[in-house]
Every structure is written in C-alpha cells, then in structure tokens.
Amino acid sequence: MSDVTLNTAVAGVPHDASAPRSAPIRQTGAIAWVRQNLFATWLSTAVTLLLAYLILRWTVGFIEWAFLNAIWEVPVVNGQAQTQACREMRGTGACWAVINEKHRFILFGTYPFEQHWRPALVCVLFVALYIVSAMRRFWNWTLVPIWIVTLTVIGILMWGGILGLPYVPQERWGGLPITLILSTFGLALAFPLAILVALGRRSKLPAIKILCVLYVELIRGVPLISLLFMASVMFPLFLPEGMNIDKLLRAQVAITLFAGAYLAEVVRGGLQALPRGQYEAAEALGLSYWQKTGLIILPQALRLVIPPLVNTFIGFFKDTSLVLIIGIFDLLTAGKTAIVEPAWQGFGVEVYVTVGVIYLVFCFAMSKYSQGLERDLNQHRRR
Amino acid sequence: MGETVLEAPVASAMRTDAPPAIVLEGVNKWFGALHVLRDINLQVAAGERVVVCGPSGSGKSTMIRCINRLEQHQEGKIVVDGIELTDDLRSLDAIRREVGMVFQSFNLFPHLTVLENCTLAPIWVRRMPKKEAEELAMEYLTRVRIPEQAKKYPGQLSGGQQQRVAIARALCMKPKIMLFDEPTSALDPEMIKEVLDTMVMLASTGMTMICVTHEMGFARQVADRVVFMDRGEIVESGEPEAIFSNPQTDRLKLFLSQILRGH
C-alpha cells in the first residue's frame, strides 16, 4: 500500500489509497512494437536490415526455384521420360515432373501398379484411425473394436488373397503404408509395454525389477540399426529349418522393443515426479494396486510426461526409415529408389523435399495435437 | 492456537465394554539403525478419541501410519477392529476399508474434481453404484460445509477447504476409525479453526479417532485421552486435564512449556 500512496503523491493526483488501481497501460501498436524491438539502436537496426535482406533473398530464390522456374511435366516417349528440359533448368528450377511421374512409386513402392488403390485406401484408413483415436469422445472401450476391425481390414487390403483381391506378398509392399504400419503397430504395442516395464522397474519384487532393468539397459544400449540387423540376419539362424518369420514382422518386433525401452524411461520419469502422498492417499482409501495405478498414478504421471512422450513418438515415426538397411521399402527408401532410373538421376532434392513434407505433415500433426491435449488435460492445474 | 476451540467438551461415545477398536502390543520399528518406535502399547476403545502429541521426530506419525500399514512395523502386534495386521493382503484390505486417514498435506487427487475425489473409493472399493456414491459424497460435503465446491478441482480451493474435502473423502468410505496425521499443521492460522470445527463435529458423532496434533484446545475439548510421545516411546498418557495441568515427567513439562510459549 505504501507504494501506491507514494506514486500518487509523486503524480500529484488525489487518489484513494485503498481503491484498486488498474495496471499501467503500455504503449502498443505495430509501429511502437517495431521501433522498440527492431530499431532501438543503430546495431539492432543494422541486424534487422541484414536479416530482412537475407530472408527476402532466400524466399524469392525459393519461390523462383520451386514455382516460377519449375517444370511440372515432361513428355514421355515410348515409356521413357524425356528429361532434357529438366536438366537444362538444373539449379534454377525445380523438376516437379519427377514427382508427377514417380509419386505412385514413392508412395506405394513395388506394390502391383493396378492394385495401388489398396495401399492408398490403407493410408486413408490409418489416418482415419488416428483421427478417431485422437477424439476424446471415443476414449473408452469402443476404441478396441474400432482398432481391431480397422487393422483387420488393413491386413486384408494389403495381403489380399480373399474376397477376389489378388494376393500380394509382403516383399512387394512399400512406401507410405510400410512407414505407417511400422510406426502404428510399433507405438501401439510399445506404449503399453513401456507402462508395464516402468511399473516393473519400481516393483518391490526383485525378479520383476531386475528383468525390467535388464530389458531397458540392454535395448537402450544398442543402436536400432544393430537390433534390426539382429532381427533380420541373426534371428533366423536360431529358428528351426523351414520355419520363417516374415521379415517385416521381425523388423516390427525390433522397433517395438526399442521404442518400448525408451518410452518406459519416459513413463518412469512421470511416475517418479508424483509425490509419495498420492500413493499413500490411494492406499489409505483401500484401493488395490491396479486401481491405484490405473485411477490415480498413471493418469497423473502420463499427463506430466506428454511432451517427452510425443518427442519419443515423433522420433520413432522417423526412425522407422532405418528399416531400409534390411531391405524393407518404407517411404524414404521408396523415394530413394525412385530416382535410380537413369532418366531421373540427379533429381534427389525434389524427391527428398516431397518425402520430407509427408513426414513433416504427420509429425506436425502429432505435435499440434499433443499441445492441445496437454492444455486440456492439465486444466486442473490452472487456477 | 489453543484458544481456537473454547466450547464445552464434547460428550464421549466411548464404550469400554465393547472389544477395543485398536490394539498395539509391544510394537517396535526401525528406520535403518534408527529405533523410531519402542515397545508401543496402546489400546483404543470403540468411540474413544485419542490425541497424540509430542515433539517432532518422536514417532507419533509413524505410529498412526503403522495402524493402516503405510509403514510396516517390525515387531509386536497390531489389531484393528478385531483383525490382526499381517502380510496377508486380505487382512490389509479389510483394515484399510475400515480406517480413514487424513494427511497433513491433504493428498487430494489433483486430477479429479472434489466430487470425484469423494466417490472414487466408494465406487471402486465398496462397489457402490455411481449415483448412490455421489449422493453420499454430497451428504458429507454438506456436512463439512463445502457442497458448492463439488465440481471444482482441489487446486482451486484454499488449504482449509482442501483439508475438509480430505475429511469428507475419508468419511465417504464410512470408516469405523479415523486417523488424523497433523491435519492442521500445513494450514494458515485463519483456516485452522474451520478444520478443527469439522473434527469436533465428527467427534460428536461417536467416531473412533486418533489424532496427532498440537492443538491443545482441541485436545481439551474433544479428547478422552492424550498420549504424549517422545523419542519413539509413549511417555505419559491420561485425561487431557491431567496431562496439561499436572505433567509427571520432565520431558512432558519441557514439551508443554515449548508449545505453550507460542500462545
């Protein structure tokens, strides 16, 4: 209160000291902001101008390359793309014709061309599944049959062999469906596994605890690439003659185990952040271990670790591209293979930009969604 | 804070003929090498109100936390409502259903509303239908005089209100015994009274209560017995008047002079 009286005395305005005073009005408006933040001193003015010049130049250059000088189509003669026009524009204009020509291969790999509607539908189904799962209206048991049905339909579409769909062996799958299959199954299975391992690491039973610690430390201590190699090259050596587990399935298992170890540590961080009082209050009320864990501990712990969880999710979505080293055609590998053909050699930038944009769309959606989720689920912490 | 409650003593509902609600016999506990409970013998009759006091680190909280096994005793016997506390999980579940606990730091579940905090255990442990549990919760929230906060989250309430919710939450399990572990120690002075009033109200219903507290006014008004602990032992116990006006041991005299100096 003494501050208030002092201020009014200085200002010379008679003022009731006990009346609430409104916050001082700050200078606002775009021009005031620009002057204050961008042109306050001669140094800041110089930096502003330099950066503005660089940004402008780069933007103009990109627009010229990507749009103004771009070549969208090239003539095809006898099934051979005539890429001379593109080659003449190298460096000054993008050759989007390569995407135009190769987008089906990039998206679906070596899947039989006339059957491409099947993996396309699979991608749509996956996206629909994500959207439905993201809606909190569906966060109950109805989600389980939805997932089972969708994944069954996806399996039927990819393999075929029934309902008049020609059979397509797994070796011919490729592109975006592979990336989505590996990351969806990987994370959907790794997440529950991670929760169990994180709980196990805090178990009072020594056998369970040691098992969980061993799992996390062993898997986390090895690069994903070597796990994939083990799954694809070494694992079959231990199998009896004639028995063969699908290559994709082996990669899937390796990715799931790897993601599980990382996620388990993230979840454990959340468990440790909870005060002991929460455990004690739940126990004192007579809740059983699983009730306590499911109703009190996990809901709070998982909310706390949404940012690192999503971080790990995004990381693994992109890490699925490592399956290329055991010869599985995911989106990135398909993109790389698309430009092996002599006519298209040298147009990697266009292909990689396109593939990058596809990855970005998925990762950005995850990131945006998690921000909203974090805000909504932590409402109780707002006052 | 001794003067917060000045009303007449609350009549006791203690029944000495009934089997004791809580029996501790020769209970010992160590934290590592530290001997925190030494040969504790204590019997609490059904309907009896016991206040436990003593300097910090004297083992009072540990003792009442042993009664619902938030801490495990290493020697001796604890019988609650006729059931002995053993490693058998069924006996533990049975005891925790009958024993309510209120903590110093409230320990409400921050992600659940006040109402959900109260209905959680009745629904999941007692298998009560949701509607019935909500009616019960509203009844107890009314009794602790905060029914209008039912839809809020604990973080939106004051400390005193949170502690009253914690009391209502424990009562929703209809426990036979209530344990209070320094329920007013984390509260601002102006909020202590509202919580103590709630506890006095509860005492008048004939609830068996053990309360660790330094609120001597509350002890005088409500307690049938005051137990003084120091260094893990029960040093003195008796009626509140006798304990406060006529302490027998130097340790109790010292303790009383220390806590009364502040008033």
Describe this structure in words.
With 383 residues, chain A is an all-alpha fold. Chain A is built from 16 helices and two strands. Among the domains of chain A are: 112-167; 177-328, MetI-like (MetI-like fold, Orthogonal Bundle), CATH 1.10.3720.10. The longest helix of chain A has 30 residues, at 348-377. Residues 1-11 of chain A have low confidence and may be disordered. Chain B is built from nine helices and ten strands. The longest helix of chain B is centred in the C-terminal third of the chain and has 15 residues, at 189-203. By secondary structure, chain B is α/β, with parallel strands linked by helices. Classes of the chains: A mainly alpha (383), B alpha/beta (263). At the A-B interface, helix 12 and helix 13 of A face helix 2, strand 6 and helix 3 of B.
Strands of chain B, total number:
10
- Give the overall silhouette of chain B: globular
Average pLDDT for all residues of chain B: 88
Oligomer: heterodimer
Structural class of chain B: alpha/beta
Category by helix and strand content of chain A: mainly alpha
State the order of secondary-structure elements of chain B, H for helix, E for strand.
Answer: EEEHEEHEHHHEHEHEEHH
Could you give the distance between the termini of chain B? 7 Å
Radius of gyration of chain A over all CA atoms, rounded: 28 Å
Q: Which CATH top level class of the domain at 177-328 in chain A fits? A: Mainly Alpha
- The strands making up the biggest β-sheet of chain A line up spatially as 1-2
- Strand tally of chain A, please? 2
Low-confidence blocks of residues of chain B: 1-6
Q: What do we call the CATH topology of the domain at 177-328 in chain A?
A: MetI-like fold
Q: Assign the CATH superfamily of the domain at 177-328 in chain A.
A: MetI-like
Number of helices of chain B: 9
Span between termini of chain A:
25 Å
Helix coverage percent of chain A: 55-70%
- Proportion of residues in extended strands of chain A: under 5%
